[in-house]
Design a protein that fits this description.
By secondary structure, this protein is α+β, with helices and mostly antiparallel strands. Helices cover 48% and strands 14% of the residues. The strands form 2 sheets. Strands 1, 2, 3, 4, 5, 6 and 7 form a 7-stranded mixed β-sheet that branches. It has a two-stranded antiparallel ribbon with strand order 8-9. The chain is elongated and about 80 Å long.
Length: 407
């Protein structure tokens, strides 16, 4: 019995895919062709090596030029549908959750921030290189003591000064940043970070483009993770870091201004939950068809079929919800409670599915040779980040009752 491959082995030829209700058929022809191109890239450049990268906790920077050549940065900005943009993340996650996470942090947070809040000068300086992965970015919001409550609890501070006098100045040309950030994806190697800090003068939240090589910036990799090991999460310390006024997002004046970005990235993490379910089904079904016990394939046992059908139903239900959310995005009507429902519901379905898949593989389900262990572990990160299951649930609860149970 060999480790399951991607795409599925010849033993599955003629069987329906995990996209059981043909969601992909809703794409136009150009989008289907581009998705097929992405699949080809993932099959040759990522799938054979992803387990090794994960085991070693190494990021494959060498693949970035080929990834950039696909021209998939911020698909909606390029005229693609929101459904296509989501399926891109799902397909990446289906092969390697870590690569998908790198992609969404860089493109859906860093690059989209430049589109949404960047000045003409900032976009001129950074946008083309960022879109083509000649430079990489990170999104530095979460702090050591503030995750779910970072909106109100943010401790990182920004003070505006005159570079000539070094004294506080409301019209100064320099900002001084002090504080710490944690769990910053791409943080160990990125060229730039979007740092969110509270203005000492009026306590409003500001956003800054910070060159990661500036004096006072220190970065250290978070070690000993059991999920997303290929992603280079970092602890960031900012010690009197001086940032030019030209590198402040002038359009950001409160935490509410970031909601558009966070809503979009939360949608993409929900699509990651779809990709995890597709991956779990792919691996579990192939294993069940090929693995023989008691003289017959596992797939011939009733309880195994029940587990596979439950996994498939979860995936189909999840994709259906995301199709509806993509329609709302196309109409500009997706609000945070709707997004939170998708993230919480899909996270729960994903967690159930990867557990069933791990069960089908038995002892082989706890070694990364068979992919399922990696899928199982990575699901825990998706369950937690971009709003934990519990916080997203309470966002929806507040929307449907009119009463907040968060604070």
């Amino acid at each position: 019995m060999t480790s399951p491959s991607y795409p599925a082995a010849e033993t599955l030829s003629g069987l329906p895919s995990a996209d059981f209700f043909a969601v992909e058929s809703l794409l136009n022809q150009a989008e289907r062709e581009k998705l097929a191109e992405l699949r080809g890239f993932l099959a040759t450049e990522v799938a054979p090596y992803a387990g090794d990268w994960w085991n070693k906790a190494e990021f494959p920077a060498h693949i970035l030029p080929k990834l950039a050549a696909l021209q998939l940065s911020t698909p909606a900005q390029r005229g693609y549908s929101h459904l296509f943009a989501g399926l891109v993340i799902a397909e990446m996650t289906r092969v390697d959750t870590s690569i998908a996470t790198f992609f969404l942090v860089h493109h859906d947070l860093f690059v989209e921030s430049l589109y949404a809040f960047g000045t003409a000068d900032q976009r001129h300086r950074l946008l083309e290189d960022a879109s083509n992965l000649r430079i990489t970015g990170a999104f530095a919001l979460t702090e050591p003591n503030h995750g779910s409550d970072v909106a109100g609890g943010m401790e990182t501070r920004a003070k505006r000064i005159s570079s000539a006098t070094g004294k506080p100045d409301d019209g100064g040309d320099t900002w001084v940043l002090n504080g710490a950030k944690r769990w910053i994806g791409n943080g160990t190697f990125c060229d730039y970070m979007l740092v969110w800090a509270r203005d000492e003068a009026d306590r409003s939240v500001r956003g800054f483009i910070v060159d990661a090589t500036l004096p006072g910036v220190s970065r250290s990799r978070i070690e000993n993770k059991i999920a997303l090991r290929t992603v280079q999460n970092a602890d960031i310390v900012l010690d009197n870091v001086r940032v030019a006024e030209a590198d402040r997002f002038a359009a950001i004046n409160s935490f509410e201004d970031t909601n558009e970005l966070l809503r979009g990235s939360r949608i993409m993490v929900a699509w990651q939950a779809v990709g995890q379910q597709l991956a779990a089904f792919d691996v579990a079904r192939q294993y069940a068809v090929e693995r023989r016990q008691f003289g017959r394939p596992l797939a011939q046992f009733q309880l195994v079929q029940q587990q596979l059908v439950t996994m498939l139903g979860n995936a189909v239900a999840s994709m259906g919800m995301m199709v509806g959310l993509a329609r709302l995005q196309d109409e500009g009507a997706a609000d945070m409670p709707q997004v939170a429902l998708a993230k919480s519901y899909l996270s729960a379905r994903m967690r159930e599915s990867v557990a069933l898949g791990r069960s089908i593989l038995g002892g082989n389900g706890i070694v990364t040779d068979y992919r399922m262990a990696k899928i199982f572990a990575d699901a825990e990160a998706i369950y937690t980040y971009e709003g934990s299951f519990e916080i997203n649930t309470l966002i929806v609860g507040r929307a449907v009752t009119g009463v907040s149970a968060i604070v």
